[in-house]
Amino acid sequence: MRLKLFRYNPEDREQRYDIFEIESRPGMSVLAALFDVQKKHDDSLAFRYSCRGAVCGTCAMLINKVPRLACRTQVAKLLDGSLEMDLAPYPALEVDIDWNPEEEVLVEPLPHLPLIRDLVVDMEPFFAFYRAVRPVFKPEGEAPARERLMDRDAVSALEAYTNCILCGACFGACPVDAKNPDYYGPAALAKLYRFHIDPREAGDGSRLELANTPEGWWACEFHTNCRRVCPKGVPPNIAIGKARRELSEQGRETER
Question: Which of 84, 91, 107 is nearest to 1 (CA)?
C-alpha cells in the first residue's frame, strides 16, 4: 500500500506531498505506518505520538480527510472503505488532491491550527480556549473530611464529557473553527459544561457565563462533526445545546 503524507518545511515554507510504499501488516495502524516511513525511508518525517493506546490524544491527524487518532486507525479499514465518514464541509475537505483512497492512505496535519513541521501543528490556540474556560474545580463550602460524594445519575451525566482526551479532533473538524478563529471550539465548551453540571461545584451558575459571548455558546452552528469524529464519543453539540437552552430560559442569552 501507499502512504501519501503532507510535508511542510518551516525554513522555506515549502508544502508538498510525498508518497511512500509501505508493506502493510495485519492490524497495522497509521501510526505504525508512519514509524515505518521514519525508520526505513525518511527519518526527517515529523509527527507527534505518546501513549500509542488512544489515551493521550497526541497523535490526532487528518487521515483520509477525517480527524482521527493515528494510533487507533487501522490501515486495512481505511483501504476497504469501512471507515468512511460523512462530514459537514470545511476547507480541508475541499482541497483538490490527486489521491486514490482505494490504494493510498492520505495523512495531513490537523486543520485550523498553525503548522510547525510536517504533521506537527501548534496546539496553543486550542489550549488557550481550554484555559479560558477555567477547567478546575470551584467547590462550594469547606472541604469534607473524606471525598465529595456523587449519586450514580450525576456520575453517568458527567461521564459523557469526562472522557475527553483533548486530542483536538473536534476542533479540526469544526466548520465554525475554520472560519472564526475566535470561536472557543467544541472541546473547550464541552469541558466547561462538564464543570457546570458537576454537583460538587458551587451552584451559582457563573460557569456558563464564561462562554456567554458571541464566540462562545452562541457561535456553534450544530454541524455535529465534533461528535462524529470524537474518538471517545464525547457529544459537545449536546452540551452546547443544553447550555444555550438554560441561558435562554433564564433570560441570560447574549446577543449573537
Answer: 107
* Cross-strand bridge partners of residue 2: 21, 104
Say how many C-beta atoms besides its own lie within 10 A of residue 245's C-beta: 12
Q: CA 69, CA 117: separation in Å to the nearest integer?
A: 18
Question: d(Cα 61, Cα 171) in Å, to the nearest integer?
Answer: 11
Question: Are both 171 and 236 inside the same structural domain?
Answer: yes
Q: Which of 35, 85, 40 is nearest to 62 (CA)?
A: 85
- Is 129 in the same domain as 239? yes
- Regarding whether 80 and 15 lie in a shared domain, the answer is yes
- Dihedral pair phi/psi, residue 253, rounded to 5°: -65, 130
Q: In which element (H, E) is residue 207 found? A: helix 206-209
Work out the number of other CB atoms within 10 angstroms of the CB of residue 191: 23
Q: How many CB atoms sit inside 10 A of residue 100's CB?
A: 9
pLDDT per position as a tens digit, 62-114: 999 999 999 999 999 999 999 999 999 999 988 888 999 999 999 999 999 99
- 26: helix, strand or coil: coil
Q: Which three cell numbers stand for residue 64?
A: 483520509
pTM of the model: 0.92
> Cell triple for residue 204?
451559582
Domain interval for residue 80: 2-120
State whether residue 28 is helix, strand or coil: coil
54: number of Cβ within 10 Å:
17
- Residue 93 pairs in a beta bridge with none
Q: Is the dihedral of CA 101, 107, 112, 118 positive or negative?
A: negative
Residue 255 confidence (pLDDT) above 80: no
Query: Does some domain include residue 256?
Result: no
Q: Is residue 255 a part of any domain in this protein?
A: no
C-alpha cell at 46: 515529523
